[in-house]
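Title: Prediction job returns without error message
Component: structure pipeline
Severity: low
Priority: P3
Assignee: unassigned

Description:
Job completed but the reporter wants confirmation the result is attached to the right record. Sequence as submitted:
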Amino acid sequence: MILAAITLAAAAAAPDPQAPESVVLVQVYRSRYDWSLPWRQEAVEGSLGSGFLIEGGRVVTNAHVVSDAREVLVRRPDQANPYVATVEAVGNDCDLAVLRVSDPEFIRGLKPLPLGDVPRSGSRVQTYGFPLGGQDVSSTAGIVSRVESRGYVHSGIDAHLVVQTDAAINPGNSGGPVMQEGRVVGVAFQGYPGFDNMGFFIPVPVVRHFLADLQDGQYNGFPDSGLQTTPLLSPSYRRERGLPEGKSGVVVDLVAPGGTADGVVEPGDVIVAVEGVPVANDGTIRLGDARVTCEHLFDLKQVGETVPITVWRGGREQTLTATSRRIARLESKRNRYGVAPRFVVYAGLVFMPLDTELLKTFGRGWPQTADRNLVWHHLFREAEQPETADREVVVLTRVLRHATNAQMTFNAPVVVERINGVTLRGLADVVTAFAGNKEQFHRLEFEGTA
């Protein structure tokens, strides 16, 4: 799957005189951090995307359009000169961002686009933006194919509601509005390479959640239910769980520490409803004329809000109340943007916390090519050892050769278990362990070694 953003060497698109003037071109100059050499940044490059004006003089676009931005410019289709914009908020978990332009001339004469609802399957939509760059707004018509829950490529681990359409969503369309009957029903954001008539847009419930989250001046993100479940499609399994006829739901296999369900829902419970909405045996709920995963109901809540969860436990139905929470440690599982790598260098030894960006230095196929112990820690340790969920794994990533470490043999990278007898629970412990040593030499113990 690809994100519909492009480089600046783009060809012009054909103008559409009926396109809204409130759709703008977003021009970004970005520089990513280099996780293989965490003290340096990559060269600046340019890219283009789209955006649109909403209430409050703000511009909505995709997070991936402005990720790692050093400068952001926006240009109205009726003007030649761009305006400098600032990134007011970014939601990497939902691939949305809000920009603001301080120059009041930018919004003069423009009308904010109103938000609509989730379009029905089979209905027609119009996608606006700047595919392949260009000077004028382009539009493409299409049909809504389906509404479903799907992974968002930008973060790499989050899944929310999406709408599939056969309207062309090409590079440069990212961040542009998808409209129906004069209202925005979504934000164009990703497509599949090799499929010309398959694109996806972020529907309005996700957009509204993102904007509502910003009302207190900060972005908290979507809550994490922390649930892993198994469908109850088998009649035998439903009988084993004691579920009466006419009831449906899914069995809870795992409850992640720190998530919404932690301390409320238990493994073995059958979730039969969320927010009073019945959950089918395949884990879906009805949303209009579509069926989507019940995780959507957890998604609708803001962090701190409560959500009622009805479970079948011990032969009877119970309605429990959980507080929506976000699991902070999952940030290490997400793709990172605009955040400098954390690292410690001591005696030429480079220490970093284990995260997705570090593993990506092994290449696109890192789950197969990276060190197996690192992959286990990153993907499987929490499920097998939930009591270690909050441990930040420290990795010795490289040795900068110097007389101090000349005799050190090293097959990078390797998990560091202890330094000078101090068990490492995070990167901060590296500094403490070295600083507190009173002996002549430092002793490092690596995982898996005697």
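Comment from assignee: result matches the submitted record. The two ends are 44 Å apart (CA to CA).
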